[in-house]
Amino acid sequence: MEESRVVLVTGGSKGIGRVIAERFRDAGHRVAATYRSGGVPDGVLGLQCDITDQAQVDAAFEQVESELGPVEVLVANAGVTKDTLILRMSDEDWDQVIDTNLTGTFRVVRRAARPMTRARFGRIIMISSVVGFIGSPGQLNYAASKSGLVGMARSLTRELGSRNVTANVIAPGFIETDMTAVLPEETIKGYKARIPSGRLGSSDDVAAAALFLAGDGAGYISGAVLPVDGGLGMGH
């Protein structure tokens, strides 16, 4: 087995983030996860934290450091949506999504970067979305926030690469979660028709990609975008 690492997953109470936390835990890593409500899986250190607040981010990291050790693998997964067409999109709709998905990721990455560079080891994994590459009506704010993670990861790679810190992006496609469960059958059918694999993905598909990028075998991969989308975003 690979060395046990200290892993922090943001947005670990539900959906993809929860499954990522569980899979890292099951692989023998020491895992902490932030949440705003709802709690985290058993065997995972839960940290109530709103990533739009730097003081809460700092407090969460301090708790992980004191209970588990310095964060070696960061999975920046926390995100929100405020979907509406541009002509109806308010400043607040825009600001809330950018502040959580893009600036929030910046806050956690900035806090993680110094201990990683000091230790000369780090894995930064950002959860983006196929929407950041192919666009989606009603998701201007979300798409902008998710595509912005690519520029962040690539700049981090140039800044931190010589210190054995990698920064990569996972771009999930349509994944079966609570968010997709409420969609009408026809909508799901429409998605499946556009996906070469002919099915929605699972949170396990995304977690497997995260485990790979965090592992020893991925040490020479940085600044990459790993699509987990059944082929939906090909060519982007």
TrEMBL record:
Domain Ketoreductase: 5-178
Keyword Oxidoreductase: yes
Example GO molecular function: oxidoreductase activity, acting on the CH-OH group of donors, NAD or NADP as acceptor
Keyword Signal: no
Coiled-coil features, chain-numbered ranges: none
Lineage: superkingdom: Bacteria
InterPro entries xref list: KR_dom, NAD(P)-bd_dom_sf, SDR_fam
Alphabetical UniProt keywords: Oxidoreductase
Family assignment from sequence similarity: Belongs to the short-chain dehydrogenases/reductases (SDR) family.
Alphabetized PANTHER family for the sequence: 3-OXOACYL-[ACYL-CARRIER-PROTEIN] REDUCTASE, SHORT-CHAIN DEHYDROGENASES/REDUCTASES FAMILY MEMBER
Name of the protein described by the UniProt record: Beta-ketoacyl-ACP reductase
Organism, as annotated: Tessaracoccus rhinocerotis
Lineage: Bacteria, Bacillati, Actinomycetota, Actinomycetes, Propionibacteriales
